[in-house]
Amino acid sequence: MDQVREHMEVIGADGVHVGTVDKVEGGRIKLTKKDSGEGSHEGHHHFIPGGLVAGVEGDKVRLSANGDVAVTFEEEA
After folding, report:
1. Is residue 36 a contact partner of residue 52, using CB atoms and an 8 Å limit?
2. Which residue, 4, 24, 49, 58, shows the most beta carbons closer than 10 Å to its own?
3. pLDDT, tens digit, 9 for 90 and up, residues 25-41
């Protein structure tokens, strides 16, 4: 988590875009609002638990779960 920086792309283990880092807060990755989804989720910050981070590769944060699974772990503010 020490290598995770603002504006890095968050991708699943399968390479699918999950979101963009707003900042690290409380051991979780806070995603930008533009990646918040649609409907009732729109306009809210979402968080990815730090335990899902598999590694940092250049300007990308790779998660240990595929993108479609990782979004199910997202938490709202």
Report:
1. no
2. 24
3. 999 999 998 765 544 45
